[in-house]
């Protein structure tokens, strides 16, 4: 991904890659915010919301993809609201 693309757009592109995997199981992910410290806040929706495996999905799929494409990101965390 090009350096001239804003961080928010890069994160959205990374989420677009992982989104079909979540949607296969009836879930989804949406970007809520990116802090100045590089923390990406996302909301898991659909069947992912409240799923006992949601934290594993967040770390092993969502965070892994975002960190791969956006090295400036420090971590990804889920928010409820």
UniProtKB/TrEMBL annotation:
Q: GO molecular function, one example?
A: iron ion binding
Q: Which residues form a coiled coil?
A: none
**Organism (species):** Nitratidesulfovibrio vulgaris (strain ATCC 29579 / DSM 644 / CCUG 34227 / NCIMB 8303 / VKM B-1760 / Hildenborough) (Desulfovibrio vulgaris)
Q: Which GO terms describe its biological process?
A: iron-sulfur cluster assembly
- Domain spans labelled NIF system FeS cluster assembly NifU C-terminal: 11-77
Query: What is the official name of this protein in its record?
Result: NifU family protein
Top-rank taxon, per record: Bacteria
């Amino acid at each position: 991904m090009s350096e001239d693309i804003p961080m928010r757009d890069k994160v959205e592109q990374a989420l677009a890659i992982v989104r079909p995997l979540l949607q296969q199981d009836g879930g989804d992910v949406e970007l809520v915010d990116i802090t100045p410290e590089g923390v990406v806040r996302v909301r898991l929706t659909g069947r992912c919301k409240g799923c006992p495996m949601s934290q594993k999905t967040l770390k092993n799929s969502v965070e892994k993809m975002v960190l791969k494409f956006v090295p400036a990101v420090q971590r990804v965390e889920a928010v409820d609201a």
